[in-house]
Amino acid sequence: MVWKGGVEKRLKIVEKYGTLNYLAEWQGLRGEDLNIDLSEEREIICSKTGMKVIYTGNVEKYCNV
């Protein structure tokens, strides 16, 4: 992958936002279907840290705009 994602330890915030591009790369590496609904957000909970990451196309949620 071009960049590392995820979190090494659970953050104080309850949830973190990620890009759909990262989600697609991650799913591709896992051999999963790349058909991603751009109108929906997808939540994945890290099995290591328990941190919830919400993948979204809404740039304002994952960038400090």
UniProtKB/TrEMBL annotation:
The protein's name: Uncharacterized protein
Source organism per UniProt: hydrocarbon metagenome
